[in-house]
User: Fold these one by one.
Assistant:
Number 1:
Amino acid sequence: MTRRRGHRTHPGRYRRRAPGEPRAVGYLYILPALALYTAFLLYPFGQSVWLSFLHWDGLTRATPAGLDNYRDLVTDPGLRASFGHALLLLVFYSALPVAIGLLLAAVLARTRVRGMAFFRTVLFLPQVLALIVVGVAWRSILAPDGLLNDTLRAVGLGSLARPWLGDYDWALPAVGLVGTWVGTGLCMVLFLAGVQRIPRELYEAARVDGAGPVREFRTVTLPGLRPQIAVALTLTIVAGLRNFDLIYITTAGGPGNATSVPAYEVYHRAFETNQVGSAAAIGVALTVVILTLTVAVSRLVEGRRP
Amino acid sequence: MSARLDRAVTYGILTVFAAVSLTPVIGILSTALGSRDSLDTGFSVPEDGPHWSNFADAWSRGHFGTYLANSVLVAVAVVAATTVLSILAAYAFGVLRFPGSNALFHLFVIGLALPQEALVVPLYFDLRHAGLTDTYWALILPQTAQSLAFGVFWMRTYFRNGAPRAVIEAARLDGAGSWTTLWRVLVPMGRPAISTMVVITFMWTWNEFLMALVMVSDEEHRTVPLGLAFFQGQHSADTPLLAAAAVLIALPVVVVYLALQRRFIAGMLSGSVKE
């Protein structure tokens, strides 16, 4: 969508010698932004890395921890579980929305849609709501006497009704479905825009070749949507792993630690149980996971070398 | 397959998903208007008409007037600072040439993928040490820094691809320096790109929760999402009141979104880095 591969190859000839303008003036323009960005983003990140090698309770003197905090990520069952939950949640936050979006794009590739602006506005709406608001809304829907259980009872499926967010087995998928609700519209809007841009002739050619809907999807729609799929995966994965607000407001990691995720553990350890070094290590590890997955997506989906 | 069937299927699917999108929204709206005495939640329409008083009640009981004022102050400061600083930096990255510009630009782009969770812990201790926790600064400064990643990335795309070279060239030939060219020519031309950045930054700042939760412990500086979280803690049994509060908080962003949805969508979908 925002891909502009071209601009690197022709950088505008005159820029090499801007008349009457000293080149160094560029640094002055950047300075204010860079100063703020360094002080409140790059430097704290560096501090996080530093803290992750310490044992510190936030009050007394810190002691060196070596790799202890990182070893805990693998050996501590609670922490390991939180990363496991996060990866499982990605199925709900990322894979499902992308799959649903693709399904819709496949159907829509064949027709022109009127009133698209309306559908786009509605489908995208969950994206602009504060996750705290989304969480409050869904908490009441998933409550024991909330909308979901009421509906189940009304259609005679009352035996399925349960306190969704308080159930050890169901809390994680329930939170996951909230994420699916948030992310699906984004993927749909992205793919709908992309599919409109695939040349009609490709579809006509496929039909002339006798391709059915499935092969048409595999040979035309799917390759044509590669860039959009990469964007959708990147956005939903990053959002899914950063997911603190939703967990905090719906389950606070519970019941037990059935829905704890790394983003929540960072907060919990740093500000509730005084394990600052460990919290920092989780934050750094989370960053590594996000960067790895983002690079993997652009490699796998787009076939590009970074 | 006939074209008519195709179309019916298409609209059917779109309508189903639109309904799924809207159901929780409508659910919370109708809950917010429901009677606080009945235990019914969801779509039941109260017999004695909508209870608009829930909003007034939530407003006064939750101190949302104060929180709203705080949110407005923080959002305005963050948006203003991000806009000016991003325009300046992106202009240099997009139009001026100087050694190291590419590396510096990539430094900003990293911020798009860096999770807050990896910053918030040291930020808290730094700002507390500086005596800035429980002040607006603790909310404004970190959020501006984080918004700069998007702002610089977004505005550079405009300066690179949206601003016609010929115009920059003509301004130069007229003797305009880089400063004049930027503010007199490129910024007025770039209003669409700038307003996209403004609405996205506004939305992110307005909805921000973790930073506010960590940095602010006194009631005086709470922003609305934080206010809602505490409100839920106190009134979790009073569903209509809680729903009314949630609606109040979502409203400003939703109104801006309905007015400027194209800008929201364009801006948010560009958030994944393409270089």
Number 2:
Amino acid sequence: MAHPVQTEAEVVESAPAGAYRRLVLRAPEAARRVRPGHFATLAVGGGTSSMLLRRAFSIHRADVEAGTIELVVAEHGPGTRELVRSRVGDRLSLIAPLGTPFPLPEGPVSALLVAGGYGSAPLFPLAEEIKRRGGQVGFILGAATEARLFGVEAARALTQDVLVVTEDGSAGLTGLVTEPLAQAIKAIDATVVHACGPMPMLRAVTGIAEELGTRCWTAVEESMACGVGICMTCVLPVVGEDGVSRFVRSCTDGPVFDGAKVRWADLGTVPADLEGAAAMGVRG
Amino acid sequence: MEPQQVDLTAPFGGRTLPNPLTTASGCAGYGRELAKFVPLDALGSVTTKTIMPYARSGRATPRMAETPSGMLNSIGLQGAGIAHFVKHELPWLAERGARVLVSIAGERLEEFAEVAEQLNGQPGVIGLELNISCPNVADRGLVFACNPATSYDVVRAVRRVADAELPVYAKLSPDVTSITEIAAACVQAGADGLSMINTTLGMAIDPVTMRPALAGTTGGVSGPAIRPIAVRCVHQVHAEMLAGRIPRVPILAMGGLRTGLDALEFALAGASGVAVGTTLFNDPAAPLRILDELRTELAARDFTSFTDAVGYAHRPVS
Ligand SMILES: Cc1cc2nc3c(=O)[nH]c(=O)nc-3n(C[C@H](O)[C@H](O)[C@H](O)COP(=O)(O)OP(=O)(O)OC[C@H]3O[C@@H](n4cnc5c(N)ncnc54)[C@H](O)[C@@H]3O)c2cc1C
Ligand SMILES: Cc1cc2nc3c(=O)[nH]c(=O)nc-3n(C[C@H](O)[C@H](O)[C@H](O)COP(=O)(O)O)c2cc1C
Ligand code: FES
């Protein structure tokens, strides 16, 4: 985990972006430490708020010179509803950067970046880094509807290899991001896939990438109470270097995981061969 | 009275801690991540997540749900076991000057004793907290702390093997008919202190799936929502001590502590120490803020020391 900074960040910009809200927050010290794939948490309301838990958001951009961090916020429940209403000049309690970022290639690679909805937010700075290292990128951006796509223009500014997919066909191809995936991997000779979006999507993407022998890094979204590694609410079953599966924290050991190591089929269960499962009465 | 002049030191077992604040078990992991937000040696002590003899995976996810001014959790005591803790976590804590209150548990009496024994003579350890509020397989899914006899047995078993210099605290559940009865049994068995309270059993149903929100169906409620329950428990047990019906031992209070004023409230009710738990998830830097606020609140009421405020709410009406 990066060394996070806890600060009262001023909202310097708040603008709609399709179905989402783009929030730009001034937090110079935090911005300096951000790497692609890091996330941030925001507290909702002040010190007496009845919403105790922070809300987690991928960091879309960190601008070191401006000293800002950009988040893309989707209205989901009461907490995000309140956050998207924040105005320029408001102060929000921010902790960033958090989590383990995407691993960056040593040299030039061909990478396919796959996103569902606001899952594309952390992929743009990653794409820039990959290009800076002489590599090339392609995007598959998917969402339920056109309004729920994020960053199509930004993707097109980085590469001509951009596929847009919507479930209702309101933009691009109709269907799920997984449908054109295998073909896209082959088309750009991708040796690595980076994916961010809903868990079922990550599972499917990993499966297809694995079949083609392509490495797949996934940024997961698990329900988090603390975001900093002290509560153990955000775990998922992951196979370790030693071949042993454990419940590991997605906030500190992730959110970026090697998709092949995540036991997608076992999410929401205690698999019998998990370290410590026997103590829970689960029989191997 | 200037806030800076207030004496926050607090006696704990045979020693004096710089202040009465600790972390609630399970809300600060083993300290490593929290240390990025607060220097651990600035806290009176650090209470670890409950440690069992062996590795436990804990429960399936989802393990948490937010509730009004609180949350539900069903972690299920995930941990790597005592050997791992002693080898990898404790030395790290000791190096940082943290004074460690180790929370331990077992499914059977022998397991509590087994973990306690392995902590004798370990650097940094200043006391043991017995989490007797966890499910007890040997007792058909009941909780030790729901029964005076089983509570007595656990404390007894640990007190027998633990280093005589290590204070042993029993952590009580609020989900009982008479918490004073359980408290009395623990003190009789040799508990040097009482921790109050653990989470209280609750449940939430997801309106989308229309099924229980937690994989474990029920979970423990924590956070400011349960503070009045915690204050009541502390006040009740302290009153019994003042009345001479329970031998007097220190109480470590927890449950929704969010501000220095909350810490003061617990002290007035009879707590000699306080722990911050769920609030850390909202504000990991909270301990230093709370200590500052506590100093201010004490000074505002002309208390020259924290210990002077302990039990103050019990003084007779004049
Ligand atoms: C690493 C990570 C990155 C994320 N990035 C983004 C992003 O870039 N943009 C965005 O809009 N959203 C993102 N999310 C999801 C966002 O955190 C949730 O939508 C938000 O917390 C919901 O809060 P609420 O009060 O609106 O909903 P409620 O359902 O009322 O929230 C109740 C509790 O559940 C938690 N929770 C609910 N849904 C989720 C979820 N999907 N993931 C994690 N916790 C959840 C909340 O944090 C809160 O503690 C991310 C989540 C994670 C874990
Ligand atoms: C996520 C979480 C994990 C917890 N784990 C433990 C634990 O391992 N052992 C224990 O004795 N109490 C555990 N507790 C209970 C707390 O230590 C504390 O008693 C309770 O949460 C009330 O305090 P609070 O409202 O300040 O959090 C846990 C609480 C939470 C929220
Ligand atoms: S969210 Fe608390 S440990 Fe990950």
